[in-house]
Amino acid sequence: xxxxxxxxxxxxxxxxxxxxxxxxxxxxxxxxxxxxxxxxxxxxxxxxxxxxxxxxxxxxxxxxxxxxxxxxxxxxxxxxxxxxxxxxxxxxxxxxxxxxxxxxxxxxxxxxxxxxxxxxxxxxxxxxxxxxxxxxxxxxxxxxxxxxxxxxxxxxxxxxxxxxxxxxxxxxxxxxxxxxxxxxxxxxxxxxxxxxxxxxxxxxxxxxxxxxxxxxxxxxxxxxxxxxxxxxxxxxxxxxxxxxxxxxxxxxxxxxxxxxxxxxxxxxxxxxxxxxxxxxxxxxxxxxxxxxxxxxxxxxxxxxxxxxxxxxxxxxxxxxxxxxxxxxxxxxxxxxxxxxxxxxxxxxxxxxxxxxxxxxxxxxxxxxxxxxxxxxxxxxxxxxxxxxxxxxxxxxxxxxxxxxxxxxxxxxxxxxxxxxxxxxxxxxxxxxxxxxxxxxxxxxxxxxxxxxxxxxxxxxxxxxxxxxxxxxxxxxxxxxxxxxxxxxxxxxxxxxxxxxxxxxxxxxxxxxxxxxxxxxxxxxxxxxxxxxxxxxxxxxxxxxxxxxxxxxxxxx
Length: 556
Description:
By secondary structure, this protein is of the alpha/beta class. Helices cover 56% and strands 12% of the residues. The chain has 18 helices and 12 strands. The chain is rod-shaped, with a radius of gyration of 52 Å.
């Protein structure tokens, strides 16, 4: 008998495939693969007995064991797969899904756990049913499996279908009175031959109830069907047997050897022993089923590989498109930023700045409205800064960058203006008619000429410059006004030039900061693409390993 270790790698690969494929646990491929893994892990040679309910499966097994070990009745009874193994004394063990074990001498416990309830439903809390019997055939490493009857409930059919895949030899019990019904023919095709279960022995029960001529016709019909299921059997052993199960059981219970011989039970048992002896050291039974399941798994893995490869290609194209979009965005944002910076630099260019604001500022100084002018000027500057900041904000949003510090702009302090002394009193008298217009024009009046000496008007600081005796006083109010205008013009020029120089320096520093933000740097491949590539490699390696392991097993 091939040892389970022989198939350990193959079993591991198949189980890994189930995880990678993420199959529905109720899907046929998942269940078949799980069954074949269980099959490869078994150290015993399993003989499964199956057929429709009330065909005498359990009766046949009881006749073989010479004991009423398994439940039999005139209604469908077996509700679970019952494993029969060797034991020093007859006893049964029930394993529940919560891990609880119920073990009792004899097999009466089966009536509580292994038969259908009043609603003909299987118990849903039973995980395994085992019977141990002191029979010499079982001692050779044989395990018998009594399966629920088919053609009764879908749940039972599903259970039978799964268990058949784990059997080294299948015994199909037939009712000679209704041989090869449509359901049985479908089972032969769908449950056996299509799954490479080709080692099948057919047992015709109830043949003793037919007339001799009918018996011959039944046998000939069965012979034609059975020929397709003996490819792995020894040439000198038939796979068709007539066994009258109930008479055989009665004869065995009475110890009537002669009567048992007439039922065909002894010939059937002898054939099973020969089949087991010839196949326990062969791989021919297992290999076709293994290949059938492994082929389906490999097909699914290849389909998975193609799907993952397609997803990777799509992800790579998406990544490429994303990079191109980012690169285009970088170019557009950079161009927009440079244009807005250039506009601000042109705006800050001293001749341009003086031409635009010097006269207005000087006039505001003369009129005492510097604060109002400064508010308007600051708003013009902030508008320029906002245009630049919009491009930086777009870069941060598009490239997912942290917002840098804002462009810092500081405004010079309010100007301090040293005004000359107004005209002398004598001059004032001579030009009395001019005083009022001058006061109105400057907005300063003659307040600064009073005893205050200095005053703050409209945010600017005005300081009365005392004469030292060397300066020639203004000869008229017009001359005084011209002096004030010139002083205010100079103060405005100095203010704007200082602002231009400082802001230019801050703008150059900010351009360096913004350049680091408006710069698309392609990151490494996204994590999900790396995972997909790893999964693709894993799937492809698994397909290769499965194929190599199958080849290794074949040549053992």
